[in-house]
Design goal:
By secondary structure, the chain is of the alpha/beta class. The protein has 13 helices and 10 strands. Helix 1 packs parallel to helix 3.
Length: about 325
């Protein structure tokens, strides 16, 4: 059975994992630990726990338990003292307190949810993502970076503070993989933070695995305004040290025109300017149905999203050829 490792955070990891779990592969998710927004940020600050949000999404994606249990993990309280918190985040934080280890908490939650695969935090140390813009402004945390509309004017540095020690299990997974999937996900908030953990970029350069970059569907206005495929790739290469990718998966289908116009103020579709690059695999990857916007969703453009199974089918073509 081929070993597939997925690196990133948030919704991107969820989409890839929820599609691949239906295929005969040995799956591992390596999860960014830079999340500090919403419920996750409050739990980090008030309880001193590691961020559970992105890990929860991966656990739910890989779960073979009942639909009720998956819904329970994603259930978000709307009122009272728990308003804004998801049950899954609370469960992971409580398990961390009970076991004394975030890794053990993730393992126990994985057993509860009967997950197919492994979920591995990229570091087990508390870190904060920071960015210094060229105008000197400092953005503190993933939340501020995510909401910023000034990044397109340029930034001088992006880093994790303090510099975390990498989880050795994450490096082992990368080195032993047959295929590594990187993305999709927020460029500055999910993808680059994973590369800022010392040792990760080196492992990606040295592993014999095929490396696959899955492009976002849309740009984020104020951050990646006007970015084409080559721009996203160039930004990642700054942190990997070289162009490591064997394949680049790019969506080539269009959502309804009215949907594009409706969300024009938030961002535009990423266009492919690498048609002559043999590594690029264009495919229709859009989900046909519309997802209802949930309370707490920051971006309406979440309605324009990857179809997990369509994406998994393209990835599996690469896996079978590896």
């Amino acid at each position: 059975m081929k070993k597939v490792v997925v690196i990133g955070g948030g919704t991107g990891n969820f989409v890839v994992l929820s599609g691949l779990k239906h295929h005969p592969v040995d799956l591992s998710a390596i999860v960014s630990m830079a999340d500090d927004g919403g419920s996750t940020g409050i739990l980090r600050d008030e309880l001193g726990v590691l961020p559970p949000g992105d890990v929860r999404q991966c656990l739910v994606a890989l779960s073979d338990s009942s639909r009720l249990m998956r819904s329970l993990m994603n259930y978000r309280f709307e009122t009272g003292g728990l308003g804004g918190h998801s049950f899954g985040n609370l469960l992971l934080s409580a398990l961390e307190k009970v076991t004394g280890s975030f890794e053990k908490a993730v393992e126990e939650a994985g057993r509860i949810l009967s997950i197919k695969g492994k979920v591995i935090p990229i570091t087990t140390h508390e870190v904060r993502l920071k960015m210094i813009l060229k105008n000197g402004k400092v953005l503190e945390g993933e939340g501020q970076i995510y909401k910023s509309e000034e990044i397109e004017k340029g930034y001088s540095s992006i880093f994790l503070e303090p510099q975390p020690v990498v989880n050795k299990r994450a490096i082992d997974e990368i080195m032993n993989a047959d295929v590594v999937i990187f993305g999709p996900g927020g460029l500055h908030t999910s993808l680059i933070p994973s590369l800022l953990v010392e040792g990760v970029s080196k492992a990606l350069r040295e592993t014999q695995a095929k490396k696959v970059f899955v492009l976002n569907l849309m740009n984020r206005r104020g951050q990646t305004t006007g970015f084409k495929v080559s721009d996203h790739l160039r930004e990642i290469v700054k942190f990997t040290g070289k162009d490591i990718f064997d394949n680049i998966i790019v969506n080539n289908s269009l959502p309804p025109k009215e949907l594009i116009e409706r969300y024009a103020e938030e961002g535009e579709l990423v266009t492919n300017d690498l048609e002559r690059d043999a590594r690029v695999i264009p495919a229709p990857l859009l989900h046909n149905g519309l997802k209802e916007l949930q309370k707490g969703d920051i971006l309406k453009r979440n309605l324009i999203r990857h179809d997990p199974q369509k994406l998994a089918d393209v990835i599996m073509g690469i896996v079978h050829a590896s």
